[in-house]
Amino acid sequence: MTSGKIAGKFALELIMIGLGILFFLPLYLTFVNAFKKYDEVLLSTASLPKHIRLDNFVTVWNQIQFPTVFLNSLIITVVSVLGILLIGSAAAYQLVRNPGKLSNTIFLGILASMVIPFQTMMIPLVSVAKDFHLINSIIGIIVMYVGFGTPLALFLYHGFVKGIPLELEEAATMDGCTPAGIYFRILLPLLKPITSTIAILHTLWIWNDFLLPFIMLSSKAKKTIPLASYIYFGEYTNEWQLGLAALTMAIIPVLIFFLFMQRFIIQGVMAGAVKG
């Protein structure tokens, strides 16, 4: 290896280390300031806490009723992601295996919805949700998450399903397997890499989302963690130590899930891109 290539590789490694530190910094600031007093957060934001204060977490646990809001977030996230995975994979399977103008039109129409900014739909969304009694409803917000998340799932599944040999399904049909059996016993196991990727992306989005619960959920008993944590950030005062403690408690479950599933991200995305 020449000296120029060595220097280039060293420079690239420095850049990647710098980017890693840059992306890690917000997480570090959140964690260290969650254990401080209010004045210490303001005076020495980047330093480690002089005394670890676990009472911040106790206060947050009681004030926002953390077990309740955690359960709300968990139910909304799990059910929404399962709905997105089921509808997205089934729709992609049918569109790929039944090619034609109608399938192409449906596919392009669903993808076109991805380019519409959510802010332009907020007022009509609230109006329609009110007519169908979906305001302040866990079921209602799950329906909306499934609707907003399915287009991306369909797009990723579509490219992956196109790479699955049709001969596998024909052989299963000759053995007496029903269409439902082909879908659940053959297709879904083969879709595991891209399914894991879609599950990770949508879990991170739904778990951390603030805007949709903000406009849809008004009852305190139905709030999610990001929405309940909003009480610590006001117009005239911000209780940073409590807000960051709440964010830390919210981050830990999804961070564990992400670390456990991250090995599937690149595998799934690359597989979907290549097989399309």
> How much helical structure, as a percent, in the residues?
over 70%
| Major sheet characteristics | none
Cα-atom radius of gyration:
23 Å
Name of the level-1 CATH class: Mainly Alpha
Under CATH, the topology can be stated as MetI-like fold
* Helix-and-strand structural type: mainly alpha
- General form: globular
Whole-number tally of structural domains? 1
Low-confidence stretches: 272-276
Summed over residues and divided by their number, the pLDDT gives a mean of 84
In total, the number of strands is: 0
Q: Please indicate the percent range of residues in DSSP E strands (runs of 2 or more).
A: under 5%
CATH superfamily: MetI-like
CATH architecture: Orthogonal Bundle
Number of helices: 14
H and E string: HHHHHHHHHHHHHH
Distance between the termini: 36 Å
Describe the overall structure.
- This protein has helices at 3-33, 38-43, 55-63, 66-97, 101-112, 122-131, 138-161, 166-174, 179-190, 192-208, 211-216, 225-228, 240-261, 263-275.
- The chain has 276 residues and is mostly helical.
- It has one domain: MetI-like (MetI-like fold), CATH 1.10.3720.10.
- Helix 3 (55-63) packs across helix 13, helix 4 (66-97) runs antiparallel to helix 5 (101-112) and helix 7 (138-161) packs antiparallel against helix 10 (192-208).
- It is globular.
